[in-house]
Amino acid sequence: MKYRNMGGTGVKVSEISLGSWLTYGGYVEQENAMKSIQTAYGLGINFFDTANVYERGKAEVLMGKALKAFPRESYVLATKVFNAMGDGPNDRGLSRKHIMEQCEASLKRLEADYIDLYYCHRYDPNTPLQETLRALDDLVRQGKVLYVGVSEWTASQMAEAHAIADRYLLDRIIVNQPVYNMFNRYIEKEVIPYGERGGMGQVVFSPLAQGLLTGKYSAADAIPEDSRAAKLEGMRKHVTEEKVAKVKQLAKIASELDITVGQLALSWILRQPNVSSALVGASRPQQVEENAKASGVELGGDVLEQIEQILA
Questions:
Q1: pLDDT in tens, 22-61
Q2: Catalytic residue among 41, 54, 75, 194
Q3: In this predicted model, what pLDDT tens digit does every residue of 166-180 receive, in sequence order?
Q4: Domains (range + CATH), the chain
Q5: 186 is catalytic
Q6: Which residues of 20-51 are buried (b: 16+ CB within 10 A; e: fewer)?
Q7: What is the DSSP letter of 211?
Q8: Prediction pTM value
Q9: Which of 41, 113, 39, 47 is nearest to 77 (CA)?
Q10: What pLDDT, on a 0 to 100 scale, did the predictor assign at position 78?
Q11: Are 232 and 178 in contact (CB under 8 A)?
């Protein structure tokens, strides 16, 4: 396993990280979820991601339980705040009240004394940005949070946050977590360039397009029973004949390199130096083992050109 700096910090995180969105605490049974986390750790993955909203806290509980077996200093743990955790008007967003309350709740569920990386899960237009940043800075000063990140913020939103933090000497956001894969490349236009200028790394989610880039779909209407698309209705719309055809072409390139199409897709993402880590999900330990092998795979210029022609 190779490691990269987490944004502009000195912390090293594994190029492949393990997340719990749509899986742990949900449709993946607890035994497989626990084994996947343990397998990841054994393979050198030291970066684990969850969120308070995933299965309303159940994913955090499972993640905390699994990681209890390992020394706390040996891994980097991330969770998030923003989405609704109740039905009240203050049970969501990035107000000081919600951030402080949810940080305490996450720490209890994770059975942890601190969170390495605390994300603002989305941008909150209803809360002054200075209020949000001040609350996060206080958590850092209290030692409950070590670093602060955001997820799916625009380049201009991150720039505004940095300007406010610099003006008031508040802790700076150092990581953004956007969606990024061969079929969704919007961050290449503004987000990655800003990350390079502003010292922010990208920890990308859905690098395999929620399983589509693993090659498991032979046709848009042939959905395997054990796939995410079979279990999650919203995923099916992403499985189109055009994308399936492109994956088959990509699989030929992967075969020539003696790797899987999933490993090709992950190594393609890691070609970006601004990417700190590619965040994968796994419902079985074998998937973690396969994805971890993408770390360290370097794609030559001719291969990247072939890929670009297919994606175009």
A1: 555 555 578 888 999 999 999 999 999 999 999 889 999 9
A2: 54
A3: 999 999 999 999 999
A4: 3-209+271-297 (3.20.20.100)
A5: no
A6: bbbbbbbebeeebbbbbbbbbbebebbbbbbb
A7: G
A8: 0.92
A9: 47
A10: 98
A11: no
